Amino acid sequence: MSEPILKVKDFSVDFWVDGLWYPAAIKMNFELHPGKVLAIVGESGSGKSTTALGLMDLLASNARRSGQVLIKDVDMINVKSSTLRKFRGKEVAYIFQEPMTALNPVYTIGFQIVETLRNHFDMGPKQARTRAVELLTMVEIPSPEQSFDKYPHQLSGGQRQRAMIAQALACDPGLLVADEPTTALDVTIQAEILDLMRSLKDRLNSAILLITHDMGVVADMADEILVMKDGLTVEHGSSDQIFNRPKHPYTTELLAAVPKLGSSRKRVLKVARDAEPVLKMRNVTIEYPKRGRIPAFTAVKDFSLDIFPGEIVGLVGESGSGKTTVGKAAIGLLPIKSGSLEIVGKDISKASQKELFTIRRHTGIVFQDPASSLNPRLPIGESIGEPLFLAKLAKGDELNKKVEDLLEQVELPRSYRNRFPHELSGGQRQRVGIARALALTPDLLIADEPTSALDVSVQARFLDLLLDLQDKLKFACLFISHDLAVVDILAHRIAVMQNGILVEEGERDQILNSAKDPYTQRLIAAVPVPDPAEQRKRREARLAGKK
Amino acid sequence: MKIRRKSKEQALEELTIESGENAIANKEVEGLTQWQIIRRRFFKHKAAVASLIFLTFIIVFVFSAVDANFGPIKTKGWWKWSPDDLPDLRFGDCPNDTIGCPTISLVPKFLGGAGIGLGEHPFGQDDIGRDYFSLVMKGTQRSIQVMFIIGFFAAIIGTVVGAVAGYYRGVVDNVLMRFTDFIITIPAVIVGSVIGAKFGNLGAIILAVYLGLFAWTGLSRLVRGEFLTLREREFVDAARVAGASTRRIIFKHILPNAVGVIIVSVTLLLSGAILLETALSYLGFGVVPPDVSLGLLINQYQDAFTTRPFLFWYPGFFIVSIALSINFIGDGLRDAFDPRQKRKITKKEKQNARAIARNQA
């Protein structure tokens, strides 16, 4: 067997916070051989990114590293910064999560690749340009000669990520550290990027250290897996062993929490479809009006959807497909341009401000980002109580009592009423969001990607809670998500959107098992499955389909 | 995924585990309200705290030293002279045959000085024998009053204009911001001298109000920017869905979140205001005699600079120290309100921590 390119022994990282050292990664031990992929898996705050950045001392100044990191038998802990700089980019390259922020927006991607090349090699501008175009060709960017002179904002998300990979590969690094490389991408693009990374790894025989929270991605890529929790290595083994014979209970729990497409029990629908629908959208078109020189943009075209009482409808689509726009319009936050939109029998498009106010009493919304959906200067009790207070349904002690009941309903302690959002974790904040949305016992709940910012285990608990509440309160729900597996758990019916158009709509099982539209089929095929064997099969099918 | 039903106790127990995410980042803010966090951060800024104490001391000292007016309430000063008294001008005991030199002495006797003491006229006397200490006290009172009045009006106008422009955007924003641009293009000194020439004789307070009407532009732009970002936050949408009126959204939801920006820039505006007042008074467009202010004192005695420089030093000292300490306080507030601001670890702390780690190992 070849010599390992990366050897990590007793590697620890601590952060200095308020006069004390807090450990972020504790006594890490692993090795990585050329041509292999090691995945570090864990939930947010488990220390996986800290470990990855710590290898090359890219951490904030309040971090302390100890132990041993050997890259090509050179210790990276007690080393001069000039040596470190030589290794960065040349021997170890990084791919970051968000290509828009990781690439400098004022330089062309070609310039940035050339910069990396000329930093490390004695190379003329012309030669570097030829090499950069070669790299862009290698990562399959369309028309590399032209793309060389494009700025990051002129490329799509997937192409940006490709450009960043090209930059990372510029010096043929022996080790590629990919920190959540596909988290910001849509599933279909994610599949392409993973294919690309795999083929490049095989061709260049470099090692990949993959940091991710997505078990599907891990199943697709990893040879070896390291599971982290609270800075500690929980389990370390081959991909096959971790997925099929996990030893540690935390690994089992993590795997169980991952939603799998088509594995949840069938939900029995006791919905009277002949009743008056709660939400009735007919040929709705929504347009963002012209602003300055930016022309008007039609976000949603000719969209029709009914939601009946007590029904959960999942709305699925990739980013930019207009699904959030539909959600906001359904609650009257955005005006519609044409068509009709009725909530509990009242037309919202022609309603006056006052009517809108009464209509909104029948609706609630849970937002995507738990960090921005609660007012940071208000205690959460006040945020939850606001709809009740403004609807003049309760005040004073009665209001406090109701708020505490709502907190209990979403399984939060009553004493949390006086806490501020920053004292809560993401999952807890999202529960507060539900409590607020349910304060007026709405007939219709809009849930706009409520779990996309949460860890899988937190997400699993959140979905449980949502299902429980829906069983009890029988509200209708429009659940917007980019994740088919999540929608699969909840929804009675699924609607799929692409580029502002509803491409397919039907019963859950019908969509998942016999989708008619090619886009829906592609979407379902691209969802990564947390099972290495299954993932290999699908990959081969996908590649065969390409040829 | 299996649908698990669980008891409430179990659920609560899991929640405590859940708060483990971001645990390290949250260590610093556990169980504290926003204001407590800000106060704690502010008190870590040594220069700001020292300046705050110093400024408070100056204000109390200055307003108690000679007679002061707080609207209808008049207070008596503890200093024996008032600016209106005309004591005898002292001759003879001054160096270089000058007159009315300061009697304050800060060098103790054992170092060969005259001992620590104020003497009859600690800051000396002016040309006609008035006690300069009481004049400087009176002048500082005026300057501080003018500063706060300018700050008050500028803060209110700036906040309202910025909030309305940022919240409504579109035409309203355009009209208000072009108006702001228009005000900015007029140099402050010209505005001040026109106002001073026209309203200076109506008294320092009226002058301050008019200056405040022109000092709000920078603040309004900052507040507008803050509102533009805050109004896109999801909690604003949430409030709208809950049925909140526009007024409630602006004042209850957005404004408290912008208060950091407002406080910081108003503090910095204050130090600008005291400099504006002294500059105008120095040019003769600000406070006019028989009233006194720091700028006016410097203006009146600039001819004496070569022979009796102390007439220059004392008002100068108060101008500089007030402006400086306000700037430091503003710095401290900015650091306290910016959550991304992390305190630097000093070398000593690092060494201490290393020693502790070594002992534990």
Amount of helix of chain A: 25-40%
Strand content of chain A: 15-25%
Task: Supply the number of helical segments of chain A.
Answer: 21
Strand content of chain B: under 5%
Q: What is the string of SSEs of chain B from the N terminus onward?
A: HHHHEEHHHHHHHHHH
Q: Evaluate the radius of gyration of chain B.
A: 27 Å
CATH architecture of the domain at 309-335 and 349-536 in chain A: 3-Layer(aba) Sandwich
Biggest sheet strand line-up of chain B: 1-2
- Total DSSP helices of chain B: 14
Outline the structure in words.
- The complex is a heterodimer of chains A (547) and B (361).
- With 547 residues, chain A is an alpha/beta fold.
- Among the domains of chain A are: 96-172, no CATH class; 309-335 and 349-536, 3-Layer(aba) Sandwich (Rossmann fold).
- Chain A is built from 21 helices and 20 strands.
- In chain A, the strands form 4 sheets. In chain A, strands 6-7-8-3-9-10 form a 6-stranded mixed beta sheet, with helices on both faces. In chain A, strands 16-17-18-13-19-20 form a 6-stranded mixed beta sheet, sandwiched between helices.
- In chain A, strand 17 (444-448), helix 17 and strand 18 form a beta-alpha-beta unit.
- In chain A, helix 5 crosses helix 7, helix 14 (380-390) packs across helix 15 and helix 16 packs parallel to helix 17.
- The longest helix of chain A is centred in the middle third of the chain and has 18 residues, at 187-204.
- Chain A is globular and about 70 Å long.
- With 361 residues, chain B is mainly α.
- Chain B has a domain at 140-296 and 332-361: MetI-like (MetI-like fold), CATH 1.10.3720.10.
- Chain B has a two-stranded antiparallel ribbon.
- Helix content of chain B is 63%, strand content 2%.
- The model of chain B is unreliable at 1-30 (pLDDT under 50).
- Chains A and B meet through strand 1, strand 2, strand 16, helix 14 and helix 16 of A and helix 1, helix 2, helix 10, helix 11 and helix 14 of B.
